[in-house]
Amino acid sequence: MIHKKASISTVQRKLAIAKYFYYFIISVVIILLIGCTNYKDMEEQVAFKKLYAKYNVEYYENDNNDEHLTMIVITGEPSLTEFPEEMRAFKKLQEIRFINCNVTEIPEFITEFPELKALWLEGNPIKKIPSFITKCRKLNILDLSNTEVSQFPEGFGNLPITSLYIEGSKIQGFPTELYQFDSLTHLYLNPINELPSDIGNFKKLIHLKVALKSFKYLDTIKSIELLILSNSTGTHLPEGLGNLPLLRGLKMKYCKSLFKLPSSLGSLKVLSKLDLTGCTRLTGLPSSLNQIPIGTLKLSECNNLQSVPKGLQVGSIWAENVTWKSMPVGIFDSEASDLNVINHQITDITGIGRMKNLENLNMTNGKIKRIPPDINKCTKLNLLLLEGNEIENTYNAEISENVDTRLLGNPVFDRKQIDE
């Protein structure tokens, strides 16, 4: 009998343990069910409020009916390490911009957005583009700048890509997948030696950014409107560059080996922006440049520049951080309305009166000692900024009372002297 009771007690104990374990499992399941949210069925406004409470949503956009979220932008949010599940509620999402966050991967649920057209992921530690991205049938803009991505997935060329940004990623060279994008308009690449000889076959390419060792074949891209060639090491641009009828902007920042610009630049009838910042080998600009109207000419850090063509049809001239001790020949003979030479070593600006269209003159932080009398010929002058110079006297200059004159930091020169 004693043995039988012991056996019964053991069975009861096991049943009790099983019972408690059963209830524990049920409790865990209930808790998980309560905590699990079906974001796909959630109203968009509710999902957005949850998302907005978690992250610094910089910008968002709704459709014309104000019913569906179509665009969401989150920038500089280190706590954003993955695509928020709340996004699954946005049925008509067309554009996602998660820039400079800590997102590590692209989730498969982006295939749930049939209208997705643009995915901007610059500055995120993403290492791989998953193959399911090819299911985003309308995706035409992909930004992988400054990510860890090193290659494209199989089938990537089947997407309708028109804009691709891979500078700063680990995708090197000129990827062969690009040849499958007949409608490519924007392309930002990592540095390469030179463009492929058939680059002109991209008939719709309007924006190109790449650092080159050779500028060969640039002049074959007839559709191009903006060339960003900053930090290139090429020595000279092709003479045929002037044959690009649509080129509006040419940026050559810190092309320190560039010593010459082609004379054909004067044929670029729609060129509006020319940025030569940091082109330290340039000593002059081609004379043909005075044949075309240029909106903005940037000459910052062009310390060896000695002259520009007389009669430049330019709106604004910018030159910051230059070691010029005198103004390069020809600048005072331009038609510029704005002249900005900041942080310089110029001591004398005699000749400024030849700038008949000058409205704004900013020559702060230099060594100018006097204002020459011919400045009174600048009858359109509205703003004169000369802070940080060594003004000693007006040199009998007459300046209109309508001119906003700021000469702070000049110990013996003030507005009263101008009036007198």
From TrEMBL:
PROSITE patterns: LRR (PS51450). The chain crosses the membrane at residues 20-40. This is Leucine-rich repeat domain-containing protein. InterPro entries: Leu-rich_rpt (IPR001611), LRR_dom_sf (IPR032675), LRR_domain-containing (IPR050216). It comes from the Bacteria. GO terms for cellular component: cytoplasm. The keyword Transmembrane helix applies. Keywords: Leucine-rich repeat, Membrane, Repeat, Transmembrane, Transmembrane helix. The lineage of its organism: Bacteria, Pseudomonadati, Bacteroidota, Cytophagia, Cytophagales.
